[in-house]
Amino acid sequence: MYQNKITLMPQDILEKEFKIDTRGYRLKEVDQFLDVIIGDYEQFFKIINNLEQEKADLLGEIMKLKQELRNARANAEIAKSTDTPEVTNVDIMRRLAQLEKMVYGKQTL
User: Fold this and answer.
1) Prediction pTM value
2) How far is CA 26 from CA 10, 12, 29, 31, 78, in A?
């Protein structure tokens, strides 16, 4: 996923050999290599920070969903424990039919 953003692997750093000049290593070559390492570490830190933020966001969402689930369960328990009979569509249709009989049954045409 992030491999195309990272230039060096640990093995590359371990196996890196600098050419020795008369006064030691070539400073420009060492500086360039260290610049690449620094760039990689900056990418690592960005990746880590992004993943930590994503993790925190997901944990917050999990907590929110757990609370909603608890509330829904509590509401379901309250609804189950009430003594009022449950009204269904069939009950409504029966009542409507009775009302129609009462209203239309008394009318004369």
Assistant:
1) 0.53
2) 22, 18, 5, 9, 78
